[in-house]
Design brief:
Two copies of one chain form a homodimer. By secondary structure, chain A is an alpha/beta fold. The first copy, chain A, has one domain: Rossmann fold, CATH 3.40.50.300. The first copy, chain A, is about 50% helix and about 10% strand. A five-stranded parallel β-sheet of chain A has the order 2-3-1-4-5, sandwiched between helices. In chain A, helix 1 packs across helix 9 and helix 2 crosses helix 4. Chain A is globular and about 45 Å long. Chain A starts with a strand and ends with a helix. The mean pLDDT of chain A is about 90. At the A-B interface, strand 4, strand 5 and helix 9 of A face strand 4, strand 5 and helix 9 of B. Strand 5 of chain A pairs antiparallel with strand 5 of chain B. Chains A, B: Pfam families: Cytidylate_kin2 (PF13189). Chains A, B: GO terms for molecular function: kinase activity. Chains A, B: Keywords: Kinase, Transferase. Chains A, B: It comes from Qiania dongpingensis. Chains A, B: This is Cytidylate kinase-like family protein.
Chain lengths: ~200, ~200
Amino acid sequence: MAKKIITISREFGSGGRTIGRQTAERLGISFYDKELIEKVAKESGLSEQFVAEQGEDSPTKNRFAYSFLGRESNGMSVNDYLWSVQRKIILELAEKESCVIVGRCADYILRDREDCLHAFICADVKKKAERIVKLYGETEKKPEKRLAEKDKKRRLNYEYYTERKWGMAQNYHISLDSGVIGLEKCVDILADLAGME
Amino acid sequence: MAKKIITISREFGSGGRTIGRQTAERLGISFYDKELIEKVAKESGLSEQFVAEQGEDSPTKNRFAYSFLGRESNGMSVNDYLWSVQRKIILELAEKESCVIVGRCADYILRDREDCLHAFICADVKKKAERIVKLYGETEKKPEKRLAEKDKKRRLNYEYYTERKWGMAQNYHISLDSGVIGLEKCVDILADLAGME
């Protein structure tokens, strides 16, 4: 059957977000990355910055931080509350329209829908390091360390909320090494698969 | 660059071997699965049956079994000896010709060659169970148990000899869920990628 929704999980620096955006453009469907953050911030009452930084961060870091956002948060930790809002919005989006959704455990949240294609984008450390330096510039930290830290957060977040191992091929319908295959070819493959009968 | 060699790692029942054979046919290159077993048996002096059964089995099972095959085995356990012969033959094949190689840690053995495309094929348990019952018939053991046992052996073998985690997307250039994508489409994608510039 044709795939209405594409979820993109990605290593930091792999170009997964760019692949997602270009796939959405190619297919003429919505793209949710920053747009998802805005929605979650609005719905949760949390700031966009907090949602952007914490929405894929290790939940155990803030284990004892509770939100004081009124009855919606229902005594949950602030990360669990953020997760619950993200989950609700992702489920609503999938109901409403064709789209590409980047990160935020969308593959897991939408695992029972048959009209989804779940993709994982990775690349070797050298390629990813080159990419983040080109995109975001140098910092005092070595790019390899920046990569490791960011992906560690994503991994802990994913594993905490899904009880699955982040990056296991079995969690996705397709995984691609963007460094070897190239970003454009990744887009070709995903756009083609989305139209599958 | 064009990819001269395609390695296929696969879950039992995922159709990875069939995908590999059809990809080799499509590209008009050699296919090594049973053919590899024959070569390894001939070179090692071990029986084809032993190579077929043990070549991807847990090496720790036979930790105290040593081969008595003369000086070539050099005091290694029989599984380490088998591994060393398999490794040598896979390296020689890659030097010699374009081909598709199924299993036997070929992705790891050939990891430093840039002219290889490393693929992993998986599928969900239901699809794999249907496939093995269709291909190999029913047995007293439930298909789910047969799948789990076979993949456990492959996993232990892979992890023992490569120190990598079996099935991690990062070990491969592409991973495909054959149950969702379909065997024919998997062949299309791999054959297309092999010709990449």
